[in-house]
Amino acid sequence: MEVLRIKAIDTQAIRHKMLRPNGTLEDCMFHGDADELTFHLGAFVDKKLVSVASFYFERNTVYPDAYQYRLRGMATLPEYQARGLSSALLRTAFPVIKQNQCTLLWCNAREKAIGFYEKVGFKSTDELFSLPNIGKHILMSIKIE
Description:
The protein has helices at 8-18, 85-99, 114-119; strands spanning 2-6, 39-45, 48-57, 68-76, 104-110, 123-124, 129-131, 135-143. The protein is α+β, with helices and mostly antiparallel strands. The longest helix is centred in the middle third of the chain and has 15 residues, at 85-99. The two termini are 26 Å apart.
């Protein structure tokens, strides 16, 4: 397994399959994908892209930290899940986020992924909420030190 920086467009197919199967490929290009401080990571197994995550310089006013990143669009193909790929993406992202002077990473975690995020150190800060056509989520964050 290898983690590399990828382009936003490289995330589309996995985002579509795993996160927005009822939408279009265009639905899988998110606002901010092309921003200067946004970065995208991909995990490769045998040179095949099998897991993706995107990180946006974006502040959530729930948190007092002045500089924050948002995690969005983390997804792994089913046959590659539970192999530590998402954890590897996060471990690669943390130093980049810290280098950008940010002290917090937050996300709207899908209900079924809460256990994963807790396992890697994220804490929930709110109640479950629903995103139309996507499902239940909860706001979670982790301090970057």
